[in-house]
């Protein structure tokens, strides 16, 4: 399933493997994000109930230069989790970068496969417990065909992490794409097109909407690959909340979580009780669509999906044996930095909100270390004069804010 734009896209990623990465940087940092963070997969796909000892078979479809692949494989290695991550892409140039990054980290739990995600069915690959498809569907000739192909190799009870572009937060991008189709036609060599794009960006008037959109920086800090992907890409489709939900449903899937959930809750932005009375009558997709429309700064949508008929188990928040974990946060450090007013300040691409926290938030969070169970934390607090009943009464309020931020999650059981 190819057309002229698809052939141009394939040539683009050979000339400019994306995202632009230097394997030498692996010694300094692990690039972390969503989807496909191991703790997110454990929580949002498996409800914190799939044993850590069960091998995880993961696929990164459209793996590019390896961000998602390296992150997940490294997190599995650090945690001693069995399983493997399959990188799949048709770009040989991107594969060279991804393999060099894996070698720099001495990761032996990655399998590299050349090919298109559109050809997964009948390929012999899979089934997979988890599939990542980040930044790919919006470039395909037929996104639904791509998503159905991924679903064909999804194991029973498994799930996917998807990222697609969203229109409102990409204000200005499509205008400059139109301009560059005139200034730098697709038939020109990639280097010449990049040169034209660089020149245009330096001289574009201040009234250009992309100049006023500080949340998109690929054309500034992403090197030639970032600029090409943002402004010269031959196919770039953005999805609103309802459009993405419709795409997922058409593939026989359903959205289990929008990341971060709180961003898609319109009540966070609308304190007026009369407006909240109106939002209460909206279904979940309508509520998320309203949040997208009124905030105006969502440039991507990240979702976790499962099969339409599959119910993700409720994470065991009431189980004393369950172990809470913080995603990329240190409990004691977070607790020390909490404001005295009982709120948690958050910022989403320039939009600031404050989430309420219970009085025990500080005491609980400073004990969340990925090892202590809820029961152990309750026992420690009881030794300091806080009753078990008080702990279990306050925990749901902490969950409402911190889980909605995609920060306080439930670990996979041992």
UniProtKB/TrEMBL annotation:
The entry's keywords: Methyltransferase, Transferase
Coiled-coil ranges per UniProt: none
Please name the Gene3D superfamilies in this protein's record: Vaccinia Virus protein VP39 (3.40.50.150)
Methyltransferase type domain location, by residue? 61-158
Instruction: Please give one Gene Ontology molecular function term for this protein.
Output: methyltransferase activity
Please tell me whether the keyword Nucleus is annotated for this protein: no
Q: What is this protein called?
A: Class I SAM-dependent methyltransferase
Q: Which organism is it from?
A: Dankookia rubra
Query: What phylogenetic lineage does the species belong to?
Result: Bacteria, Pseudomonadati, Pseudomonadota, Alphaproteobacteria, Acetobacterales
